[in-house]
Write a structure and sequence with these properties.
337 residues; mainly alpha; 16 helices
Length: 337
């Protein structure tokens, strides 16, 4: 009979653990990938982005939609076909004349198709708003970065210019100076072409539209130019243009992009307001504001005419503002809601 010591000695010893493989390189994520990942998790932002893309697609594809739909925004269908308008000029059918032929009904008085008026109105408003927003953003970047980086007397005079322009009552300025700008191009006794009115709208809305973003970027640059990476670039002999392009502008992407998403719907509503007041686009150019002006005249007898353009405007502005909030949270998770 073997002793306990001999029995223990006969038990094989456990094998040593296998050496773990050397750690491989850890795959990092760039700030852009992290931003996109956070944005995709925000359902509100994703839905809002889809709605905004849909509006832009409708505006860009307006001629294609018109061809598929078989109608245009200029033909007076209610006057060409009997029975579509009643003796008082209002749509004869229910809900403003909604039918299989005219999906959103007919315009009171002239009898134009409301759906095509809305589609081309979206196209007009978005193209003007996009031009104004791009122009104001570029101006704000140039002036704000120049004032913040150069400092001194340049910053003083550019800052006073922005303060002066911010003192203007913007809505009153738009209403008062829109006819003045149009008169610079065309004699008031002559009919004003549409492209001149569009140009005047862009100029008037741009003139005061860049100041808020310009002040914001000036403050950002004043803080960034004292950071270590900017000082290191100066010590290394980098030119001012290279410092602005490589060090400052990449750090301004977040405020510029977020403010862009806030500015564009504001320009849409401002442009629609000018057309509503009669100093923007006029007949026969399809426009959101002009549709609101017509709806204000006929809402007692045809309230349905206001429903579709009003709903489209509210949905667009709300979704664009929600998109701006989602982009801000995606770029800076510390501001998450």
């Amino acid at each position: 009979m073997s002793s306990p010591t001999e029995a223990a000695a006969s038990v094989p010893s456990p094998l040593p653990p296998a050496p773990s493989p050397p750690p491989g390189p850890v795959a990092g994520r760039s700030p852009g990938r992290l931003m996109r990942r956070r944005f995709r998790r925000d359902r509100t932002g994703v839905v809002s982005a889809c709605v905004v893309v849909l509006f832009f697609a409708v505006g860009l594809l307006a001629p294609v939609i018109s061809w598929l739909y078989g109608k245009d925004p200029y033909t007076l269908y209610g006057q060409e076909q009997s029975g579509l308008l009643d003796p008082f000029g209002f749509p004869a059918g229910p809900l403003g004349g909604v039918s299989g032929e005219h999906w959103f009904g007919l315009e009171p008085g002239l009898g134009r198709d409301v759906f095509m008026q809305l589609v081309y109105g979206i196209r007009t408003s978005l193209l003007i708003a996009l031009a104004v927003t791009v122009a104001t953003t570029l101006t704000a970047i140039v002036v704000g970065v120049t004032a913040g980086y150069l400092g001194g007397r340049t910053d003083y005079w550019l800052g006073r210019l922005m303060d002066f322009l911010l003192g203007f009552p913007s809505q009153l300025f738009f209403v008062a100076f829109m006819p003045v700008v149009v008169a610079l191009f065309v004699d008031p006794r002559e009919e004003t072409p549409t492209w001149i009115r569009v140009t005047a709208l862009v100029l008037v809305l741009w003139f005061l539209g860049w100041t808020g973003l310009g002040r914001l970027l000036r403050g950002q640059v004043l803080a960034l130019r004292e950071r270590e990476f900017v000082e290191a670039a100066k010590v290394s002999g980098a030119s001012p243009w290279r410092i602005v392009r490589k060090e400052l502008l990449p750090n301004l992407v977040t405020p510029v992009l977020v403010q862009f998403t806030y500015m564009l719907p504001g320009v849409v509503t401002a442009q629609a307001g000018l057309s509503y007041l009669g100093v923007g686009l006029v007949e026969p150019t399809p426009d959101w504001g002009r549709m609101f002006a017509t709806a204000g005249e006929v809402y007692e007898n045809d309230p349905a005419y206001l429903f579709f353009p009003g709903t489209a405007m509210v949905v667009f502005v709300v979704c664009f503002n929600l998109l701006g909030d989602s982009l801000r949270d995606a770029f800076d998770p510390r501001t998450g809601r």
